[in-house]
Amino acid sequence: MTNLSATNFDDSVEFTIEKTRQNTATSGFEIRIEQLHKYYGKVSVLENLNLNIRAGEFIAVVGRSGCGKSTLLRLIADLEESSQGNIHFSAHRAVSKNDIRVMFQDPRLLPWRSIVNNVKLGLPKNKESEALALLNRVGLDDKVNLWPSQLSGGQRQRAALARALLHRPKVLLLDEPLGALDALTRLDMQNLIEKLWLEQGFTTVLVTHDVSEAVQLADRIILLNRGEIAETFHVNLPRPRQKTAQFIALEKNVLQAVLAT
Predict the structure, then answer these.
(1) In a domain, 24, yes or no
(2) What is the model's pLDDT at position 5?
(3) Quick check: is 64 in a domain?
(4) Per-residue CA distances from 14 to 54, 91, 116 (Å)
(5) CA distance 173 to 43
(6) Which of 151, 168, 185 is the last residue of a domain?
(7) Which of 8, 78, 146, 199 is 20 to 30 A removed from 171 (C-alpha atoms)?
(8) How many domains are there within the chain?
(9) What are the pLDDT digits (tens) for 22-67?
(10) Which ranges form a coiled coil (predicted)?
(11) Is 251 exposed, middle or buried (0-12, 13-18, 19+ CB in 10 A)?
């Protein structure tokens, strides 16, 4: 079983993220993953995985299908139990389910609830003003009383993002949430996620098959292969990122590494 615990980490290792926070009070948790294993019967999905994710860092996890990306995300979210290993969070209190939120490829909105009622699902009535404010931030202020079926795919994902962020999470886990969107909507959503991440400072782990998306958003890219970390890429590019020669070169290097696995 995975040991999900709150731990005070050693701050001796200096880590700098080149970004400006508007709200440092909501900075995310540091995550330490130690000797993580996951088996399904005799099939090994993750094998002795060790990874430290700094508070407020944006990590992208790439790799071929079946390499363990989504499994890793579900283990961090405590949606599954590991076969062996530990996951620690740098918290001074018990970690609650609202501290860690997941956004999936499917927005998972309830079709019989309006958009605003989907966003504030499970929260007290006094949260409605916050839900409306957040829907305004994601560009859905004129859609709050519509049904999910009346929204486009990109708009539904915006609503799902608002729902996740209404809880002010310390960790946001993104399991290919933009995979089904068209190219322009995907770029728009990437910009929105980056903007809100910069403002709120939550730690983010993104699983994606899109190498360009990983370079666009992440501070660090982790390549998984057969359940192990095959390679790590540091993205030392200024934000907002442009498709410069350096960007394209890094994108090429990551893609080649993925294809070589």
Answers:
(1) no
(2) 59
(3) yes
(4) 10, 18, 41
(5) 25
(6) 168
(7) 146
(8) 2
(9) 444 447 999 999 999 999 988 999 999 999 999 999 999 999 998 9
(10) none
(11) buried
